[in-house]
Design a protein that fits this description.
Blueprint: E1 2-7, E2 10-17, E3 22-26, H1 39-44, E4 48-52, H2 69-82, E5 88-93, H3 95-106, E6 111-117, H4 128-137, H5 141-149, H6 152-156, H7 162-173, H8 180-183, E7 189-197, H9 202-211, E8 230-238, H10 247-257
Helix pairs in contact: 2-3, 4-7, 5-7
Length: 258
């Protein structure tokens, strides 16, 4: 089921699958809900999965404002309230993971549990070569956008202005940010999921996890001393194919139901 929801004049596209406790999915940059691959169907077996297309992505038109994690998080919170979901679980991948993280920071009243997949809590958490690629995305937007427009993704979402999408994404990801001071204050119980060959450095993954209370000490024979936060590393995957199997869905489902 597809539901358009108007937030501040923007028609936000929302896809729903399955029934049960709400789980909001936030996609990665440039792509939309199709990026979750088989994970949507796997999660929808026991959940009401609500996949939001963020500003200028998929079937949600762009508007005259830059992409900012904070304003996108406000959009997500507004959708959750418009659907009268109360406190929903939230799972975000990459760019969507950053939006999910900001939603939990800015709007704790709408987030129950949080799953952050392959996202950084600060720009320096990406490897240098990834940051360099972001820095060049703006100047290469026309060329890359023209190529994507002819791709299967372009055919799936013909309404997207791909040059603008890459230009705005490059501008967003070239801005410096560091949310680590806020991470330790997140109220939602949180799980981090990464590929073992991710675009995020292992140093930052551990920094992020420790800020959530994890990785501080031995959990004890019975596990009673472990932190509430969880960390998962999916072997044999990269930042770009992490959602190709249902591994993330399996890990998230166990955490969300625990």
């Amino acid at each position: 089921m597809n539901t358009p929801i108007t937030i501040d004049g923007m028609q936000i596209h929302v896809e729903e699958h399955g029934t049960g406790k709400p789980l909001v999915l936030l996609h990665g940059g440039i792509m939309a809900s199709e990026a979750f691959g088989p994970n949507i169907a796997a999660l929808a077996e026991h959940r009401r999965v609500i996949a939001i297309h963020l500003q200028g992505h998929g079937h949600t038109p762009d508007v005259d404002r830059p992409l900012r994690f904070e304003t996108l998080a406000d959009d997500v919170a507004a959708v959750i309230r418009a659907l009268d979901l109360g406190k929903a679980d939230l799972l975000g991948y990459s760019f969507g993971g950053g939006v999910a993280l900001q939603t939990a920071i800015r709007h704790p009243d709408v987030v129950d549990r949080l799953v952050v997949v392959a996202a950084a809590a600060k720009r320096a958490g990406f490897y240098p070569e990834v940051r360099t690629a972001f820095d060049h995305m703006d100047t290469q937007a026309a060329q890359i956008g023209a190529h994507v427009a002819q791709s299967p993704l372009g055919k799936l979402y013909p309404g997207v202005n791909w040059e603008t999408a890459f230009r705005k994404m490059g501008e967003l990801q070239s801005r410096d940010y560091d949310w680590m001071p806020q991470v330790g204050k997140i109220q939602a119980r949180t799980m981090l999921v990464y590929a073992d060959a991710d675009a995020i450095t292992m140093d930052h993954i551990m920094e992020f996890y420790k800020a959530l209370g994890g990785g501080q000490r031995d959990a004890g024979m019975d596990g009673s001393l472990r932190a509430a936060a969880r960390l998962a590393i999916v072997p044999g995957t990269t930042h770009y194919d992490l959602l190709a199997t249902t591994a993330v869905a399996s890990l998230a489902e166990e955490f969300l139901e625990a």
